Amino acid sequence: MGGFSNKLVIKAQDELAAYGGIAEHVSPLKERIGLYWDFLKRPDLDGSDHEVPWSAAFVSFMVNLAGANSTFPYSAQHSVYFYRTINDKVIKKASAFWGFRLSEVTIEPGDIIGMNRSGKPPIDYDWAMTHSDYFSHSDVVVSVSGKTVEAIGGNVGSPPGEVARKIFTHSGGKLLTKSKTQEVFVVIKNFLP
Question: How does 11-44 read in b/e, with b if 16+ C-beta sit within 10 Å?
């Protein structure tokens, strides 16, 4: 695991340690979510805005805190950075982040895994290659042990969301949450030192 990946894991774990178990509309997470949105130039939002999903803002903020600077396609929508990283990989564009099919890579700490939003239909990698606006979710991988992947994300759980840990399991060529409501379709890897 490279330096950036290690930093991303540490930042996500620190965020969970500081804000895990706190509902989005409760201080101090409410204000912290405001910082996620400030980073994306949306100072009008914070954790009290229940109707606005903040999971992509969480991932974008973590990636920036880890030191990606301008190399990541930060967005308030996961689908935007899925589209960009998948297409950068397909055309082999020199880029710090590429989006791979689950079958193409081994998942490692520091990867970002993309999936359908809980309760929505699964998403296909090929379809995501040609679409940049749809409901989705992503989490930062913090550990891998055998067929089990542990990740940390924002806006996790039933509303109100929180910063939380999720467990995924490999099963039949798929990577699913234990509740089987989310299926990973893209693994974003970085090439940063």
Answer: bbbebbeebeebebbeeebbebbbebbeebebee
Phi/psi-derived region of residue 21, left when phi > 0, alpha when psi is between -120 and 50, beta in every other case:
left
Is the pLDDT score of 1 beyond 90? no
Read off the pLDDT band of 179 (50, 70, 90): confident
Per-residue pLDDT tens for 76-117? 999 999 999 999 999 999 999 999 999 999 999 999 999 999
**DSSP 8-state class, residue 146:** T
Burial (CB count within 10 angstroms: exposed 0-12, middle 13-18, buried 19+), residue 52: middle
DSSP 149-187: EEEEEEEESSSSPEEEEEEEEEETTEEEETTS--BEEEE
* Three-class secondary structure of residue 191 per DSSP: coil
**Cα–Cα nearest to 139, from 101, 186, 86:** 186
Q: What angle do CA 54, 18, 38 make, to 5 degrees?
A: 35
Beta strands 112-115; 97-100: pairing state? unpaired
Query: Angle, nearest 10°, between helix axes 3-19 and 55-65?
Result: 130
Residue 168 CA: distances (Å) to CA of 26, 70, 87:
28, 30, 25
Strands 137-145, 162-171: pairing kind: unpaired
Cα–Cα distance for residue pair 15/169, rounded to 1 Å: 23
Token reading at 192: 């940063």
